[in-house]
Write a structure and sequence with these properties.
The structure is a homodimer.
Chain A: H1 2-20, H2 23-30, H3 34-40, H4 44-70, H5 75-86, H6 89-102, H7 105-130, H8 139-158, H9 163-181
Protein name (chains A, B): TetR/AcrR family transcriptional regulator
Keywords (chains A, B): DNA-binding
GO molecular function, one term (chains A, B): DNA-binding transcription factor activity
């Protein structure tokens, strides 16, 4: 029942945005009574933060598994994996949450630790996938820049950016990373 | 009067977000009657799109002027200028508009051309500032990646990212760009 509520909530965040995601709509879509929903999640903030956390955790596990299945991928394949990761509906739901939290102090208090944790996890997986040596000066910053680039591309995608542009940018970024990190793809 | 309405609207987008920006609040803050406001802007969408366009145009002019005053800046100075450009309150207001437009077809129809125009302008100024030669394969994509990185950093900033992290990333990216574009800072 909890999982049904969380998944319905993420769907609604993607379809209708934060303002359009009411607790009534969530309970209807999940087929859960209002009483049961309020028992699990007393406020809308409790519900949406738990929903995004739930899906981010699942996506983190999926990213880890995809990483393992790739073995030692080339840089371009790593970037493709990361780009898919951030252009998923989870990113869209998280974006709604981030923007709403910007002007809602209670929501921000709940979202900030979640964001920090997710950021650390994604960074760790990226370092592993790229086989990057962060003891070399500048390497840590390049990995961070790569993740910030992904976030920028994901934002552009929600605004209707085209995939071919993204592909060309990732091609070039992979070449630049390989050159700078001294790897061959 | 029109300019007062537009500036009040941008302030409210930054302070309260899209959902919290009501046309009543805008007319109150601008000290303009409801009738006069409705004459200029019949709907909330008309008002917010015009407001963000107004400020983006002003910021575009400011970027152009800053670019001219720098003469031939080093890559790091260019990145600083761009980062300041996207972490301003205009970016925040635009972010609110983009996210609201994602789930509002009418708003999206108005925002998409504005976004495309702003993107082209910023790209043009960046190429000029970096002295980049886009006829060289990969250079156009590097400039695009630089702007997407800026957008990602700006998004992180609205979530409370710290300035020092941003500075280190920009340092490293400037070094990488110089190396890849074959320039010396």
């Amino acid at each position: 029942m909890r999982a049904r509520l969380l998944e319905a909530c993420v769907e609604l965040l993607v379809e209708r945005g934060y303002a359009g995601t009411t607790t009534t709509l969530v309970s209807e879509r999940a087929g859960v009574s209002r009483g049961a929903q309020l028992h699990h999640f007393p406020t809308k903030a409790d519900l949406v933060v738990a929903a995004v956390e739930h899906v981010m955790t699942e996506r983190g596990i999926a990213l880890d598994e995809a990483a393992r299945s790739l073995g030692h991928p080339g840089t371009r394949a790593v970037l493709e994996l990361l780009a898919d990761h951030v252009t998923s509906s989870v990113f869209t739901a998280a974006l709604e949450l981030w923007v709403a939290a910007r002007t809602d102090a209670d929501l921000l208090a709940a979202v900030a630790p979640l964001e920090a944790k997710t950021g650390r996890e994604t960074h760790r997986v990226t370092v592993e996938l790229l086989g990057a040596d962060e003891s070399v000066p500048g390497v840590r910053e390049l990995v961070q820049a790569t993740l910030d680039l992904m976030r920028g591309l994901a934002l552009a995608t929600t605004l209707g950016d085209d995939d071919r542009r993204r592909e060309r940018i990732l091609d070039q970024w992979a070449a630049t990373l390989d050159q700078t990190l001294g790897r061959t793809a």
